[in-house]
Please model this.
Amino acid sequence: MNQAVNPFHPDLRRAARLIPNITVTRQVLAVMRFLARFQPKPRVPEDVAVEDTRVPGPAGAPPVRVRTYRSRTIQGPTPALLWIHGGGYILGQPEMDDFLCIDFARELGILVVSVDYRLAPEHPFPAPLEDCYAALRWLFTQAGTLGVVPERIAIGGASAGGGLTAALAQLAHDRKEVRPTFQLLVYPMLDDRTTTRTDIDGTSHRCWNQGSNVFGWRSYLGHEPGSAQVPAHAVPGRREDLSGLPPAWLGVGTCDLFHDEDLTYAGRLKAAGVPCDVSVVPGAFHGFDVITRDAGVARDFRGVYAAALRRALFTTRDS
Model:
């Protein structure tokens, strides 16, 4: 690719050349799940406690495993973050975000709870979302035991985890049982209608292309994406009324397939009166902050959303 027209951020150009353009299919998914078993795990620092717990699942469903991260140096009640991993609704587990969740717990002094939700296509909507809701409800109901300030519980996630975060904010709003204070949306997968677009130039997309997007949404919805109607809470980008949702932060790169749908959703949140800070990273592709973890632009991006989370959880607000 000619350097003069290279769309990628300078810190990401080498990685962009090396990342293969793979479309997820059932066969590819099986291989990816197998390889994920061998993903290296970070060394857990001595000042962070990491534990696995099973919490009550949705009615008629199995318990939900959650992975908790807490700094051993923090005393007294703390804010908390319910974190939802990505993976296109079809892949992943909490351990894939150990690095990030450990950093959140250490740097912010909060309890982090990461959800091991059921995956599509074996468990399509609403199973993954209901698992996340069960974990959120547990976090609220056990706040006293966990040493958590219930008024300072945020939800967040990346990619499909960001989509589940947005849907969870909507579901919690409608059920009126629990109320998260903030939603952290890291390049979220929000709208199945992106799969029907024919004007998208995918040459600068990495890690998640249009073919994979079709497979992910089809697996999650249980039918072809982009249909005239979908169930409530299945596709957060389709919800008409966004008023009353928690304040949000949303970040995405210009080389991300979700760029347009993400900025559209952020604009609609603002139009509905929901505060939403937006960070757009020029030349960044999907998942860049994980794949190129040590790149300067990746560290800066993580710093921006960690700072947004800190403000949301620790800034005193007038009642």
Q: What stands out?
A: The chain has one domain: 12-314. The chain has a mean pLDDT of 95.
